[in-house]
Design a protein that fits this description.
With about 110 residues, the protein is mainly beta. About 0% of the residues lie in helices and about 35% in strands.
Length: about 110
């Protein structure tokens, strides 16, 4: 079952075939490690934004992305020297947090 993710109460996005994490409409926060983010083309991005800074290091490329509604840029850490090109985000790499800050594990019975 696909679960819509509401961004700013206006834009529907999906986490692919990610399992359900609780009742629909429950407020949550998403956590994604920088090394699990990938860049995507316009229209394909799960989290639309604009690249604000690229730091190329020998072992990684750090890409900072300004996202509407976020107080700080989102960091995508890409292995090696990378061109700033977006790809898909793996839903298995996304973590969901409740209002209390604790991680919410998927309920397989709701998926």
């Amino acid at each position: 079952m696909r679960r819509p993710l509401r961004q700013h109460d206006a834009i529907d996005r999906h986490l692919g075939d990610a399992p359900a994490f609780g009742p629909e409409g429950m407020p949550v926060e998403l956590g994604i490690r920088p090394e699990h983010l990938k860049l995507a083309n316009d229209g394909d991005a799960l989290l639309p934004g604009c690249v604000s800074l690229v730091e190329s290091r020998s072992e990684v490329t750090n890409v900072y992305v300004s996202v509407a509604g976020a107080s700080e840029p989102v960091l995508a850490r890409l292995a090696g020297q990378q061109a700033t090109r977006w790809g898909d985000t793996d839903p298995a790499a996304v973590h969901v947090f409740g209002a209390d800050g604790r991680e919410i594990r998927p309920h397989r019975s709701l998926a």
